Amino acid sequence: MGDPSGTDDQSGEDDPGAIRSIALSPDDAVDAFVYGRENPGDAVLRVTPPFHGRMRARIHVYRVDDTELTGAIHLSPTEIIADEVVADYPDLESALADADAADPDATDRARDRHVEAVEEWQARAREAIVDSVALETDDGPHRVELKPLG
Questions:
Q1: Where is this region: Disordered (predicted)?
Q2: Mean pLDDT of the chain
Q3: pLDDT tens digits for range 72-115
Q4: Residue 3 lies in a domain
């Protein structure tokens, strides 16, 4: 006989509808976003089964999406960081276009300013984690709380 509280019930272990909250590192969310902007491949916050009420998301970098095989949930950093902060991410191409291409020092200064702007953006983004996200389930969207760590 199983536990009457249902805590040993394994029937929902692959159902993301069991999740009530996801703990995550704001640094992981920010690093995943920056990685996706600056590198090939994708970076997400990943939650892996078995699913239960409180879960932990960790940064995951990939080139091939394996969620069908693993049953994992991938949370895009653009879902986790507030829209207005995502929209303010500093654009290196614009900074370089504004620099005088004939002046190598101007290009170097533009790159240095971009690095500083990204660092400032990262600090803002760590403080701009949204309160909740919707997970797709067989029963439709399921909203869960996000709990920043640290």
A1: 1-21
A2: 90
A3: 999 999 999 999 999 999 988 888 888 877 788 988 999 999 99
A4: no
Residue 93, SS3?
Answer: helix
Which pLDDT value is given to residue 89? Answer: 96
CA gap 45, 67 in Å, rounded: 12
Q: How many helices (H) and strands (E) does the chain have?
A: 6, 7
Looking at the structure, tell me whether residues 104 and 39 fall in a common domain.
no
Mean pLDDT of 127-135: 98
What is the distance of C-alpha 118 from the center of its chain? 17
147 and 100 both lie in a single domain: no
Q: Is residue 50 part of a domain?
A: yes
Q: What pLDDT is attached to residue 93? A: 86
Look at residues 89, 67, 68 and name the one whose alpha carbon lies nearest to residue 78: 89
* Lookup result for tokens 């078995």: 50
Residue 57: how many other CB atoms lie within 10 Å: 26
